[in-house]
Amino acid sequence: MKNLNNKTKKQLIECIETLQKQIKKLEKDKSESQNLVGELKDSEGRQRTIFQSTGTAMVIVEKDKILSMANLQFEKLCGYSRKEVEGKKTWTEFIVKDDLKRMKEYHRLRRISEDLSPTNYEFRFIDRKGHIKNIFLNIAMIPGTKKSVASLLDITKLKNIEKALRESEARWKALSENLPALIILQDRDGKVLFINRSVSDQSKKKVVGKSIYNFIPPGFHKIASDCFTKVWKTRKQCSYSTQLKTAESKVRHFDVWVNPVFEKEEIVAIVSSSFDVSEKKLMEKVLQESKERLSLAIEGARLGLWDYNFKTGEISRNEYWAEMLGYTLREIENNIRGFYKLIHPDDRAKTEEKMQEHEEGKSPDIDVEHRMLNKEGQWKWIRNWGRIVDRDNNGKPLRALGMHFDITARKQIEEEIKKYRDHLEELVKERTTKLEEQNKELERFNNLFVKREFRIKELRDRVKELEKREKGLSNK
User: Fold this and answer.
1) What residue spans of 235-305 are helical by DSSP H?
2) CATH number for region 303-406
3) Contacts for 17 with CB less than 8 Å, ≥ 6 apart
4) How far apart are CA 19 and CA 64, in angstroms?
5) Is residue 381 a contact partner of residue 354, using CB atoms and an 8 Å limit?
6) Burial class of 406 by CB neighbour count within 10 A (0 to 12, 13 to 18, 19+)
7) One fold for 56-160 and 303-406
8) Cα-flanking dihedrals φ and ψ of residue 401, to 5°?
9) Residue 122: in which H helix or E strand, if any?
10) What's the 3-state SS for 75-87?
11) Of the candidates 351, 346, 331, 340, which has an alpha carbon nearest to the alpha carbon of residue 313?
12) Alpha-helical segments (H) within 122-271
């Protein structure tokens, strides 16, 4: 009995010790559990703080599409308060209709397996005011739940920039391809980086990456190379002219302007703008030939040309304008005052009046004859013809062109003709006076003759009457 009690006591002590160990373990586990709960609460608090304070709009989406949590940035994005959103609104209420079907399918597949739907994509978002925004979405499932967490980045401005960039690129492409100039961008080694259209019957793709010298005639390689080098060294514009023979063996002329292209104040490339000036060269040749013919015609016709600037009062003239008065151009004042000094005093008012009438638009041109003093002190007759060729926006004259004709010989002939005419008129007058006197004498003679004839008739009638009377007496 004693042994049994000892054994029972021993077992009881062991049981008590075991219970004490278990109690200690439970207390330890409780402490660890409390620590874990605290850590979980701290972690949840940190996560919630991160969720709420992140700079990106974020939401937690339930299986039934309800938004169970939203942060401050989502409030700003959608225009609703968190109280109006959390537990009340579904994410489908914020989606443009055309994107809704696709996103609903993603929602369903994601809850079967995350691998079945994309984790990021773009869609169109409708805010409280009905404004549509472009959103880039990142979404993932919360482990061990049917919930998902999503971040929404507003990329509307980026989309607008991309759209503007595409439109700008389209405009640039349309502009560059339709420019009259051939635009070529090249690097320091002369490799073509860009060209706005095909050249020498080669497509743009075949030209880009090739040496620019492949498209410059060999005879112009040096002048082009010198110009390119100058631009790289001086960082300033340079130009040169070149020629190119077409497939039809026609020579085309080009003016090439080369400019530096800067990036952060460093030259990264140079751009060449080539203008086809073949028609211009032809016109210049025709114009030069025309000028030569005109010069010969003016010289042959001995015309004095003048060009008057109304603003400065200066007059430009050709050599013959001065020569017809016996001067050189240096000896004549090149202004309007010097011009009027040479005009005869009796002709100045008339000349100024003609000029004024034309300035006011009352006459189509200036056409006046006046005398001008030559170097020898003699007066020469000049026909002055001109016209205003340029006016400002208010109609005020800016420039007039004209010419002088030496009509002294014509005036002398006219004077001789006038003298001869006056002489003839005097002779006619004298002859007329004499004829008038003769007519008067003739008229007097005629009157006397008529009276004499009338008297003779009277006498004859008297004689006949006497003869009749005498005959009657004889018969008796």
Assistant:
1) 278-301
2) 3.30.450.20
3) none
4) 49
5) no
6) buried
7) yes
8) -120, 150
9) strand 120-126
10) HHHHCCCHHHHCC
11) 340
12) 156-178, 204-207, 221-234
Sign of CA dihedral 107, 109, 110, 111: positive
d(CA 200, CA 244) in angstroms, rounded, equals: 9
Token pair for 363: 């006459």
Please give the DSSP secondary-structure letter assigned to residue 145.
Answer: S
274, amino acid identity? S
Neighbouring residues of 297: CB distance < 8 A, sequence distance ≥ 6: none
**Of 280, 233, 281, 278, the residue nearest 258 (C-alpha):** 233
CATH of domain 179-282: 3.30.450.20
Beta partners for 274?
Answer: 182, 256
Token pair recorded at residue 366: 């200036």
Query: And the tokens for 158?
Result: 């980026």
Measured distance CA(59)–CA(46) in Å, rounded: 16
The residues spanned by each domain of the chain are 1-53, 56-160, 179-282, 303-406
Q: What is the pTM of this model?
A: 0.40
Its sign, for the CA torsion 387, 389, 392, 395, is positive
Q: How far apart are CA 437 and CA 440, in angstroms?
A: 5
The SS3 assignment for 265 reads: coil
- Residues for the chain: how many in total? 476
C-alpha 277/C-alpha 81 separation (Å) is 68
Secondary-structure breakdown of the chain: helix, strand, coil percentages, each rounded to the nearest 5:
55, 25, 20
Side-chain-facing half-sphere of 301: CA atoms under 13 Å: 12
Q: Return the H-helix or E-strand segment holding 241.
A: strand 238-245
Distance between CA 402 and CA 366 in Å, rounded? 8
Dihedral sign from CA coordinates of 49, 52, 55, 59: positive
**366 SS3 class:** strand
Looking up tokens 């696709």, which residue turns up? 102
**CATH dotted code for 56-160:** 3.30.450.20
Q: What is the full per-residue pLDDT of the chain (476 aa) written as tens digits?
A: 444 445 555 665 666 666 566 656 655 655 555 554 455 445 455 556 567 767 789 999 999 999 999 999 999 999 999 999 999 999 999 999 999 999 999 999 999 998 999 999 999 999 999 999 999 999 999 988 899 999 999 999 988 888 888 887 787 777 767 777 888 899 999 999 888 876 666 677 788 889 988 888 888 999 999 999 999 999 999 999 888 766 666 778 889 999 999 988 899 999 988 888 888 877 877 777 666 666 655 565 567 889 999 999 899 888 888 888 999 989 989 898 889 999 999 999 999 999 999 999 899 999 999 999 999 999 999 999 999 999 998 889 999 998 898 888 888 888 888 888 888 888 888 888 888 887 887 777 777 777 777 778 777 877 788 777 777 766 65
